[in-house]
Amino acid sequence: MGLVAVLVHAGREYRGHGFMNGFGWVLLLLTGVQISLGMMMKISKWRQRKLSSKAYDSSETKSWIMSLIGRVHVLISCLIPVLSWVEMGFGFITLFGFCHEDHLGQCLAHGIMGSAFIFYGLVLVIMLLAADQWLLRSGKSQEFYDSVTITAWGIVNSFTEHRWGSNWSHGDYQHTSMGLIWWGAGMVGIFLSKNWLGDGGYRRNHIPALVLIFTGWSMSQHAQHLPISTKVHGFFGIALMAVGVVRIIEISFILKDQPHDSQEYGRGIRSWQYLPPFLLVESGILFIGATEEQLQLLNDIGIDHGSYILTLSTAAFLIYLDFLFLVTLHRRLRDKRNAVLSGSSGTASGRYANRDDDVDVTNGSSRSQHESDIELTGLLSDDE
């Protein structure tokens, strides 16, 4: 509807071919491919159900093609939300004319890093509500994967924040030092994720939480040109440090160094466990909204930092609600499907089990009756 409204109206003229415009067509193309592949998979399943096995071509080649289509369908399903998020970011900066010339690097840094925090919050929501059993089967702790990601991200930041051949700036020192502590602490987290002196299994640790605390403290201490920018960065640092503190409490006092299991009787999901993902989303939104041009615009308009932080927090709550709703919906649909599948298989197995029980009972009663006849025969013989 939005595309049609833009193309058919005779009002404002849009000149030029901006990056947002081209990216929108890419999203539209991916959506069309996604719908087409979904229809092909549905038609294939319908034919497989309706037609007999002789009439339906179930060759290995066709099965391989359908498997490939399914994989591409899943890949596009994962790409569309990510690309849609990027497109919304492009729409925002295009609307206000931000992120040009010297401001491009800072926009990229804030957008990528803030989106990474939001994505980390989404990962924790998925692990909390839907993927905890997969994590238990993998035999590794959540902190192992967190530490690997932190190490990789730190290595990238250490060698990309400063433009080689140019003079070092204040921001280069800040971001490069942050990358150094990320890969240094990340490697410690990887090492501590395994119980080397015990059974060799994987265990929980606090290193990823400590990385967030150090990062939040560093961000809160960054010198800024505007008072509103200093206060927004300070609140962002507090939110990020809160993630680390809450995460340490969750691991040590809520879960007592044990892996999370949402299906465990008497425990399940504790209310405290919903705090770390939200605080990560809050931190990401605050960091995305803390660029120089945005805060300069707010300062010129006269909006104070309190109103701006509350507005960004509202967006964080809505994004977190969207994450919770989608992951919960997936979990309920998955559990319902598994219940139907286990119920149908359980009915069949129970039917066969009842047949076996009937046979066993019949044989048992026949044997008992035969033994009773023998005993009665013996008693009659003695009396005679």
Write the layout of secondary structure elements.
Blueprint: H1 2-8, H2 19-50, H3 60-96, H4 104-129, H5 132-138, H6 142-160, H7 170-192, H8 207-220, H9 227-254, H10 275-288, H11 292-301, H12 305-383
Would you mind describing this structure in some detail?
The protein has 384 residues and is mainly α. The protein folds into two domains: 1-45 and 63-97; 102-339, no CATH class. The chain has twelve helices and no strands.
First and last CA, distance: 102 Å
Whole-number radius of gyration? 30 Å
- How would you sum up the major sheet? none
Low-confidence stretches: 348-384
Mean pLDDT figure: 82
Report a brief summary of the structure:
Helices cover 77% and strands 0% of the residues. It has helices at residues 2-8, 19-50, 60-96, 104-129, 132-138, 142-160, 170-192, 207-220, 227-254, 275-288, 292-301, 305-383.
Keywords:
single chain, membrane, globular, YTP1_C, mainly alpha
